[in-house]
Specification:
Blueprint: H1 2-13, H2 24-51, H3 54-57, H4 62-71, H5 76-81, H6 96-126, H7 140-161, H8 174-191, H9 197-205, H10 208-219, H11 225-243, H12 254-285, H13 289-311, H14 313-323, H15 325-376, H16 382-422
Helix pairs in contact: 1-14, 2-13, 6-15, 7-8, 7-13, 7-15, 8-12, 8-13, 9-11, 9-15, 10-12, 11-16, 14-15, 15-16
Length: 423
């Protein structure tokens, strides 16, 4: 009897897939309206506290300290006086065999987490669930919330059980990259409804140009000539791949094509802002990677939870999960893979640097394309293969040139040190 009532309740929330409310632009506007209920009041409060210099007037109470931490942060000198540590701790020395074992561990962890994550992501958004009456899950924001809340708890537990540098950044600064991170994730999930997963993976590989442009805007960065050349190569390879795609006869036509294009552009813009803003915070406040992960996911949970609550999507999504047990299993596995993957990303970069990490993730992208084509039957033509070769050749060329420039600078520094010592 209870199951029947639950089924009737769930059925009352169902809507036909033909409704205009299922269109991605409507969902985007609704999500933004939900986020605004946090962003606008938060902005007004922060502006008021800064205008009246609340940090100089705040007392020693819990509320005063909480507001100070959220809006003004903690001065680095004060944090050191209170017993904090700096972020520039020395990495433990390891033998070559130990280094190799750790590298293998990172490689397997990243490959396992994100290859599984990619397959489950496509399955959740494209596979109909149910017995006789099959239906697809359509609320991308609920998946984003599940991914973020598990990542937040993992990071929080890690911070509690390990020694971390004293946190000095105002908490509200995480909200910028948190919002852009949510929007990039939303675009990523929505894109799966309009373009195949291999196309989306290669779109990620072509993010170099927007990342470079965003770096110039946020951090005033300058780039080498080879970086521009490889960026153009990646864009050309991406174009070849997209133009070689076979047109699906059952697709809705030009609207779907342009929808996928605009969603991918939004994904790349938001994602490039996220990485550049996080780099700015790292340079200025010297927090650890896990602290960054915890702060960003904290605001991501707040944004998505508020929006889901306002839309009533929590109830419909939970009812869908109750009605389709396999869906809930897939979502839990998806969230675990996403959170675990973030932990491996931070650990790999801290131990071996960005170059090694990029090589591992480049291999992951190639394996993700291959697995998706084998499992879901996505076809890549000969021209598409040429495009893929150009994209990954450019990526490896970029890594090689960066490594050579770094080695050259190290050699020049050693030579300067020897010259100084001899003199």
């Amino acid at each position: 009897m209870r199951l029947r009532k639950l089924t009737l309740c769930y059925s009352s929330f169902e809507q036909p897939s033909e409704l205009w409310t299922d269109f991605w632009l409507w969902g985007l506007l609704i999500n933004l309206a939900g986020y605004a209920t946090i962003i606008v009041p938060g902005y007004l409060i922060i502006r008021y506290l800064k205008k009246h210099k609340y940090d100089e007037k705040a007392g020693s109470g819990v509320i005063g300290k909480a507001l100070g931490l959220c809006v003004f942060g903690v001065e680095e000198n004060a944090s050191l006086e209170e017993g904090g540590t700096t972020a520039s701790s020395q990495k433990p020395e390891r033998s070559e065999s130990s280094q190799a074992l750790v590298l293998i561990f990172c490689f397997i962890g990243l490959q396992g987490s994100y290859l599984t994550w990619g397959i489950l992501q496509e399955k959740v958004m494209t596979t109909p669930y149910g017995g006789v009456h099959k239906e697809k899950f359509r609320d991308s924001q609920f998946l984003v919330f599940m991914n973020r809340i598990l990542a937040f708890f993992l990071a929080a537990v890690y911070i509690v059980v390990t020694r971390q540098p004293r946190h000095t950044a105002p908490l509200y600064k995480y909200s910028y990259c948190s919002f852009s991170n949510i929007m990039s994730s939303w675009c990523q999930y929505e894109a799966l409804k309009y373009v195949s997963f291999p196309t989306q993976v290669l779109a990620k590989a072509s993010k170099i140009i927007p990342v470079m442009l965003m770096g110039k805007i946020i951090s005033k960065k300058s780039y080498q000539y080879f970086e521009y050349i490889t960026a153009v190569m990646i864009s050309a390879g991406m174009s070849l791949f997209l133009l070689s795609k076979q047109v699906d006869k059952s697709a809705t036509g030009t609207v779907t094509t342009f929808s996928g294009f605009f969603i991918l552009v939004g994904y790349m813009a938001f994602d490039s802002f996220t990485s550049n803003w996080q780099a700015e915070l790292f340079d200025k406040h010297k927090m650890s990677s896990v602290q960054m992960m915890c702060g960003v996911n904290l605001f991501s949970c707040l944004f998505t939870a508020m929006s889901l609550w306002q839309q009533g999507s929590f109830l419909t999504s939970l009812l869908f999960a109750t009605y389709h047990a396999q869906f809930m299993i897939d979502v839990i596995l998806l969230s675990i893979c996403s959170a675990t993957g973030q932990m491996f990303i931070f650990y790999t970069i801290s131990q071996f640097g960005a170059v090694t990490f990029v090589i591992i993730m480049t291999i992951r992208q190639g394996l993700a394309i291959l697995l998706s084509c084998l499992i879901y039957g996505n076809v890549i033509t000969a021209i598409g293969v040429i495009g893929i070769v150009i994209v990954f050749a450019a990526i490896f060329l970029r890594i090689y040139c960066s490594h050579r420039i770094r080695q050259r600078k190290l050699a020049e520094n050693r030579k300067a040190v020897l010259t100084t010592s001899v003199a």
